[in-house]
Amino acid sequence: MRHGGGRRAFFSTQTPSSPASELGDLLLAAALSKSFSRSPPAAPALDGPLHEAAALHVLRRPSLPAASKLSFFRWATSSGGYSPSPAAFSALLRSLTRSRPPLLDPLRPLLRQALSSSPAAVDPPTFRSVLDAFIRSGRFDSAIAALDDAEELAGSRAAAGLLTPRTYTSIVLALLQKSQLPLALVLLRKLLRASALPDTLACNQLLAALRKADRRDEFRSLFDELSQKGFLFDTWTYNICIHAFGSWGQLGVALRLFKEMKSKGPRVVPDLCTYNSVVGALCVAGKIADALIVYKEIKESGLEPEKFMYHTLIYGCCKAFRVDEAVRVFNEMEYNNVRADTVVYNTLLDGLMKVRKLDKACQLFERMVSDGIRASCCSYNILIDGLFKNGRQAAGFVLFTELKKKGQFVDAITYSIVVQHLCKEGRVVEALELVKETEERGLAVDLVTITSVLIGLHKSGRWDSSEQLLKYVRDTAMLPNVLGWKANMDSLMKAPQDKGKDYTAMFPSAGSLSDIMSWINPSPSTDTADANSDAESKDEWSLTPYLDKLADKCDSFGTNSRLLTDFRGLRVQEKRGGSFDIDMVNTYLSIFLAKGKLSVACKLFEIFTTLGREPMSYTYNSLLSSFVKKGYLADAWGILQDMGDKNCPADIATYNLIVQGLGKMGKAELACAVLDQLSSKGGYLDIVMYNTLIHALGRAGRLDEANKLFEQMVGSGINPDVVTFNTLIEVHAKAGKVKEAYKFLRKMLAAGCSPNHVTDTTLDFLEMEIERLRYQKASIKRDRDEVDGE
C-alpha cells in the first residue's frame, strides 16, 4: 500500500512476485470481504484491475452473505477493468440459490448477463440449481423464462449442453412434486420435439400423475408420442399404462400392452402389479368370469395375491351382483392372512345390501366390529341406506337417530340419505327439518339434498318450493344458484318457441324397436380371433395361459358395439365439473314426468339441448321410461337413436327399458337376445332386469323360461323382492296354473317378503281363478253324473 499525495487507493492490485501471488489475492479478498460485509457496504477504490483469483475468493467465501457477494459483483463489474469468468458467474449464482431464503429477483438478470457474456458462462449443474430454486419457491413462470433465455442467448451448441435430458428430467420431477402437472407436460413434450428421449423416471411419474388426475386425452397423446419416438417402456411404464387404460374401460388396449410386455422379456417381465392391473381391467369391463379364472391361474402359479387384487375382485363381483363369488374371495383373503380393511368390508356390505341379503349384511357388520376394524361414516351410511331400501325404514331411522345422539359417524351424506328416503315416503316436512338441522350442525347441504327436497315438494303438491327452501336452507351457497336456475327455466319455458319444427318428430327414427340388435352392434365385425387362436404362438411355460389367450384376442375387445357404462346413471353428478345445468334438467324432468307432464318435459329437454347442454344417460332414460310406459314405442326408438348419434353411453337402466319395450311388443325372444348381448359386453343383470325379463316371458306365455330365470336369479345370489313374487304369481294365475301361483306365494312368505297392494290385487284375481276352476270342475262332474244316470 502507498501513502502520500495524489489519488488515494485503499487496496493495491499490483501483481506481486510469483511466490506471493496467492497470498496477495487472499489478503485482498479478505479486505474486500470485510468492506462489503458492512451495512451499508463501503465501496473501495483500487489502483488497478481486479484479479480473477481475488474475485473468486470473495464470491466463494462461505462467511460472506449472498447479498454482500451480489453487491461486490455489481461494484466489480461496474468499476471497469473486470470481466467475470464463467467460474465467477457460477459461484455467484450458486450462492444466491443456496441463500436462506434464496435471492430470486436478481437470479434471472444475472443468468441473462452470464449467457450473453459467453455461451459457456453457465455450466449445466449451476443452471439446474437456478431452475430448482425457482421451482421450490413457486416461481414457475421464472423457471420457464430461464429455459427460454438459455435457448435465446446461449446459442444452439451451448443450449444443447445446458438443456440436456437430465436437466429437463430434474425440472419435470420438481414440477410434479409441486403439483404443476400442465407445466411438467409442456416441458416433456418440448424435449420430445427436440428428438431427445426423456428419462424413464420422469416419463413414468408424469404418466402416473396424468392417470391420477384422470386426464385421459393428455395421457393417450403422451403415450402415443412416446411410442412413436421409440421410448423403451420398462415394467413400471407398462404397469401404469395397463392400469390407466384398464380403469378407463379400454380393455383391448390393456390386453395388447400385456401381450407386448410379455414379448419383450426378459428385459420386461410382468409382476404382481401387472396382474393386479389386468384383473382390474377385466373387472371394469364386466368380464368377471374371466377375471376369476385369471385370479385362479395366478394363485396356482405360486404368486400370492395381495390386498389390491382381492379388493378389485370383491368390488367387481359386487358391482355385477355376483355377491356369492365376492364372499368366496373375501373368505380366501382372510384364509391367506390378508387382513381386510374398512374399504373391503364396506364394498362387501354394500353388495349384500344390493342383493337384499340384509341378515348377512348385518352379520358382516358385526364381524367387522368384532375383528377390530373401525367402522367409518361410509359404513354406517351403507347400513342406513340399505335398511331403507330393504323395507326396514323404521330400523334405518332408529340407527340414524342413535348415531346423532352419540355425535359420531354422521356426516352430510348421512343426512342426505335420510332426506331422500323421507321425501320418497312423502314426509317432506320432516325432510325439511332435517335439512335445517344439517346446517345447524355446520354441515353443507349439497345439490343432491336440495333437488331431492324439490322433487318431494312438487310430488306433495307444494309448488311454493322456493319459499319453503328459503325458509329452511339459509347458509348454503348452492341454493341461490338453484333458485336462479329455476327462474331462468320458467322464463325460457314461457318464452315463444321457434315454430319451424312444428309438426315434426322431436326424436325422428328410422325403422322400429325390433331393429334393436343393429343399434347395439352398429358395425358388427367377424371375430377371427377365435379362429386364429390355435395358430398363435403359445408359451408352454406361461404362468397364465388363459390370460395369454385373452391377450391374443385383444383386438376383439374393440369399440364395434354400442358404448356401455358400468354404472347406473345418476340424477346429480356433483363430482363432475360443469354439470350443474344438466343436473337441474334431470331434476325437473323427474318432477314433470312424475306429474305426467310428458310434453312439458320434452319441451324442457329441447330447450336445453338447443342451448348446447349435453344430455347424460339418466336424462335419456327418464324420457325413455315415460315413452315406454305410455306405449309410445316408436318415439322410444327415436330416443335410442338420438342417444347413439350423440355417443351417450347406455347403462343397465337403458337396457332394462329396452327389454320392457320389447316385452310390450311381445318380442320376448328378442329381449333374451338383447340380454345375451348385454352379458357378452360385460354387463350384468340386477334385480330390476330380472323382474323385467320375467314379466316379459310371463306375458308371452313362456312360463318355463320365466321359472328358469327365477332359479338363475336365486342361484346368482340375488334375493327376490316383492315385485318378483308378484310378477310370478300374476303370470301363473293368468295362465291358469293355480298350484304354481300358490307355490310362489308360499315362497314369498317364507322369504319374509311383505305383500303390498299389488299382491292383494293379484291374490283377488287368484281367488277368482280358483273359484272359476272349482265351478268348472263341479260342472264337469255334474255332466259326468248325468251321463252315468242315463
Q: How would you sum up this structure, described in words?
A:
Helices cover 66% and strands 0% of the residues. It has 790 residues and is an all-alpha fold. It is built from 41 helices and no strands. Among the domains are: 121 residues, no CATH class; 88 residues, no CATH class; 105 residues, Serine Threonine Protein Phosphatase 5, Tetratricopeptide repeat. Pfam families: PPR (PF01535), PPR_1 (PF12854), PPR_2 (PF13041).
Question: What is the strand and helix layout of this fold?
Answer:
Elements (H helix, E strand, L loop, with lengths): L20 H16 L15 H8 L6 H13 L7 H13 L8 H11 L6 H13 L3 H14 L1 H8 L2 H13 L3 H13 L6 H13 L3 H13 L6 H13 L3 H13 L8 H13 L3 H13 L6 H13 L3 H13 L6 H13 L3 H13 L6 H13 L3 H14 L5 H13 L3 H13 L6 H13 L5 H8 L5 H17 L21 H5 L8 H4 L12 H8 L27 H15 L3 H13 L6 H13 L3 H13 L6 H13 L3 H13 L6 H13 L3 H13 L6 H13 L3 H13 L6 H33 L1
Helix pairs in contact: 1-2, 2-4, 3-4, 4-5, 4-6, 5-7, 6-7, 6-9, 7-8, 9-10, 9-11, 10-11, 11-13, 13-14, 13-15, 14-15, 14-30, 15-16, 15-17, 16-17, 17-18, 17-19, 19-20, 19-21, 20-21, 21-22, 21-23, 23-24, 23-25, 24-25, 25-31, 31-32, 31-33, 32-33, 33-34, 33-35, 35-36, 35-37, 37-38, 37-39, ...
